[in-house]
């Protein structure tokens, strides 16, 4: 199977997201698709996988023109895409989602045992933990990505497109995934297209890369290549290293006292933490180790089962998120569209939701404020655009634009998830500016370098246990990786 994209154009109003792109993908190859956020790479992959129609251009498979008018048509042509925010059905179980779309699928004309066996085989092959009867809303984002991947393989796709597939998975899971992708491409002759901002993953996995910039194809390179070479292709030169200027640490603004948290998998008693104004607390751990439960409890989104939560001395135990929000505690979810933003609303409508509430919405003021924020945060979009029209990186910038200027506490799940190096550095510039104004920050990240670079202290979560790293400046990434794996003697 060989795929040709010929003179692909895609326009969103005045935005030329893909500009005359011609490229060939050959079977048996793992190809990295690189570019800064908003470069057009996800749009191009959505055109190939049927989620977006091209404005003009042609797709050929083995020399024959094909139509990918919709995801089902693309899957019928052997092309499937695992998107960064998985497209699953929230009311279904893992098994029901896995069987959905397969011949005899949801209504189980084939037996449940057949699909359960098939799911188990794929899960074992890739080292995934996908309990068949678990509801989707109980899965992490990483597990949902894994489920969508094995579902596409079960549907028989021969070209697999993966958008940021290693977000939130362990090193062991990534190794297993990469080994499987190599087997699928090099042994089974599939095409694997990897959209990723993690250049170390591209270097470790890909046979070649293509690079997009501002909607145009600007380069292609056979691997191996160095990080510096790939950065130069993406941005036209080297980027400055991120810097974290010191900031004064103030009084305690937020504290946990003997807090007890639990869910269906974890039991976390006797949690104690004091966070000072201007302090940055990083949370590390494999997906499902307890950091998500912890963060949501810190913002009133999960109940406590003992202990007290204090905010500037006020007892917030048992309060709801709206009470925390009133006191300038803001939570940012990892799932941008699922929780952070509202699909179907425009950028202006999002701004209206967070502005001072009055009996009548002041639409001109909301539009003016959003226009100012689009300029300040370099968002590639317009006030009237619907949020789902924007790239993942630009959606993340919108989330930043909606944050208050000087909250008491920011609780952020993976604030740079899916962002390129330049965009991630820029997001941290905005966060550190708030820190200098006294805002305390609790954030989680799967990027160990990010944790070490920006944290004053790091809390490492492992199976519900928490280990505090206070000497971050003396802790390297290798030591932190061992701690995440449960080897706390490396601290």
Written account of the structure:
InterPro entries: AAA+_ATPase, ABC_carbohydrate_import_ATPase, ABC_transporter-like_ATP-bd, P-loop_NTPase. This is ATP-binding cassette domain-containing protein. The protein has 2 domains: 3-235, P-loop containing nucleotide triphosphate hydrolases (Rossmann fold); 252-328 and 404-490, 3-Layer(aba) Sandwich (Rossmann fold), CATH 3.40.50. The model has no long low-confidence stretch (mean pLDDT 88). β14 and β15 form a beta hairpin. A 6-stranded mixed β-sheet has the order 6-7-8-3-9-10, sandwiched between helices. It has a 6-stranded mixed β-sheet with strand order 16-17-18-13-19-20, with helices on both faces. Strands 2-1-4-5 form a 4-stranded antiparallel β-sheet, with helices on one face. It has helices spanning 41-48, 71-76, 94-99, 112-126, 141-154, 171-187, 199-205, 227-235, 291-298, 321-326, 336-340, 347-354, 363-376, 392-402, 421-436, 448-454, 477-484, and strands spanning 3-12, 15-25, 30-34, 56-61, 64-66, 79-82, 159-163, 191-195, 208-213, 216-222, 252-262, 267-276, 280-285, 308-311, 314-315, 329-332, 409-413, 440-444, 457-462, 465-469. The chain is built from 17 helices and 20 strands. The longest helix has 17 residues, at 171-187. The protein is 34% helix and 24% strand. The chain starts with a strand and ends in a 7-residue tail after the last helix. By secondary structure, it is an alpha/beta fold.
